[in-house]
Amino acid sequence: KKRTFSGIQPSGDIHLGNYLGAIRNWVRTQTEYDNIYCIVDLHAITLPIDPQELHQNIRRLAAIYLACGLDTRYCKLFVQSHVRQHAEASWILGCFTPMGWLNRMTQFKAKAGENQETVGAGIYMYPVLMACDILLYQTHLVPVGEDQRQHLELTRDLAQRFNHLYQQEVFTIPEPLIREVGARIMSLTDPTQKMSKTNPNPNSRINLLDDPKTIKQKIARATTDSLRLIRFDPERPGINNLLTIYEALTERSRQEIEAEFEGKGYGELKARLTEVVVATLEPIQRRYQEYMRDPAELEAILRAGADAVRPIAEATLQRMKDVIGLG
Ligand code: TYM
């Protein structure tokens, strides 16, 4: 079986973009592959975060993974910092990473913004750590949303460069797995920006744990336009985004969806979308509450996951060290 690896940062509320771009796809293909899914807490400290919040977010994200349907029979779930090899490999690979390659990362520029002199250096090294996450497990496929494409290309480039330098297949070269529908869900309040955990406006995203009333309000307030015509059209990002979410959740064709709303108003679309979102999230939230009631069970799952993946990571790290001449 091919191996998949992916991860989410426990840095805020998990939203519909994370679900449609990532988790849902992991669940769908879990029986096909040998899966490793991570809670990337070392990435979450690249920007300031309250310790208590971080601690809680890690458990919450584990409960969300399980509530969305990841099954420990098919997936190993673990917390990145529980497997020390990630940090160690990251130092080594960082020494083989040209600064110019990191300078080109658009996410670094966006996150550091005006503060390039004051942000921690972790935000700069972020893509190297991500590359190690993937490469340590000899991953074939990395299911992610569109925003991770550039990081995946860097990972491939680093792996190829390292293998070439030492003339050995130390790393498997991974492929991104980016689905057509749902890979780029946009903000509800500014549909030219992606939906994100860190947007200060909570109305910009629908969180997986939002209650029906909140979901209804957020969708009601979502930016549209004055055209009053319900069509998939990238030139009209607001309506396009609502329709895309509807398409991803109902799994119907675009023609069918446009026909459904022929001659109808935006109110109708928003009402239908609200129903579909609420119906999708309701069972997830119910299961989430059940998992959160049993912290010992969550801890046990994460511990077993880390114990199962550690030897895989260690084997790759050893090979890295051997070819370099360390140890
Ligand atoms: P993160 O935590 O920002 O996002 C987690 C996953 O959700 C996807 N995603 C979206 N998909 C569609 N629409 C959106 N608006 C949207 N926002 C987020 C992301 O593409 C991602 O798949 N660097 C990664 C975490 C990471 C990782 C890894 C991923 C660390 N190591 C190794 C894969 C493999 C990140 O910040 O994801």
TrEMBL record:
Domain of life of the native organism: Bacteria
Motif annotated as 'HIGH' region, chain positions: 10-18
Pfam families linked to this entry: tRNA-synt_1b
EC number: 6.1.1.2
GO CC term, one of those recorded: cytosol
Keywords, ordered alphabetically: Aminoacyl-tRNA synthetase, ATP-binding, Cytoplasm, Ligase, Nucleotide-binding, Protein biosynthesis
Main location per the UniProt record: cytoplasm
MF (Gene Ontology): ATP binding; tryptophan-tRNA ligase activity
Biological processes per GO annotation: tryptophanyl-tRNA aminoacylation
Family: Belongs to the class-I aminoacyl-tRNA synthetase family.
Function: Catalyzes the attachment of tryptophan to tRNA(Trp).
Name listed for the protein in its UniProt record: Tryptophan--tRNA ligase
Organism for this UniProt entry: Thermogemmatispora aurantia
Gene assigned in the entry: trpS
